[in-house]
Amino acid sequence: MSKIVTLSDLRIWSSETAPDERPEDIAFLLAERLGLSPSEFQLKQDLQLTTEQIAQAKKDITKLAKGISPQYILGYSWFYGYKIMVQRGVLIPRFETEELVSWALAHLANEQTILDLGTGSGCITVALAKQAEEKGISNLNFYASDVTDAALRISEENFLLHDIDVTVRKANILIGLEKFDVIVSNPPYIKETEKDVMDQNVLQNEPKEALFGGKDGIVFYQKFVKQVRQHLNPGGRFFLEFGFSEKKQLEELFAKELPDFTIEFKNDLANKPRMVSGKWNK
Residue limits of the Release factor glutamine methyltransferase N-terminal domain (predicted)? Predict the structure, then answer.
């Protein structure tokens, strides 16, 4: 194509260079580098670009065309309005998980001890801590655990970035951890059989241990129900995300293993079952 001068020119070049990538990923990447909101990106197609901006965009789009996720190219993602540092080997925060945070947030109270189980980037803890602060909920004690060193390192970077005091623990599910009032988790829940229908970018870039939950997708939950009573205070709650096709299996699992809990399922904004909460009636 002819020389790149405007944002419109760059957009055309990008779609030709990375034809297999989603237009929204290209738009997100270009807009973030140029410091434009989504609406500004659409309205400022005649924006004159500098030589440096064009050079950076060409580097970025070339990486995108090779299958690297836009968030990993930038080194950050957005979650609940907060910038979250990410890198390959750490799960990219998902929009659906914001709904889990909102649900848990509605049940937080002063003086509670909260665990973000399988913290990954630390996005759940960042959102809960900052939102609780805005709502005047005070004296919360945050813990974040994960099984990988990569996740714990990047989560600590995010806690530092957002000035949050968090105790970080390396743990496989709940083994070796303390007792908590609230446990929140977005665990691995994708069935092994769903690999064939997944986005290749996700499979190439994101950590398998944070995605896949075994043949039926519920290995985490099967272990969690065996351990949770030793790690919840009386009256404590948990909030978990799950795959929308797994509700029936989880209903049966919780009914069998946690009869002394009040279990509540919740649909996401797409009206699919996606979250479950349990309150210990002790």
Answer: 20-75
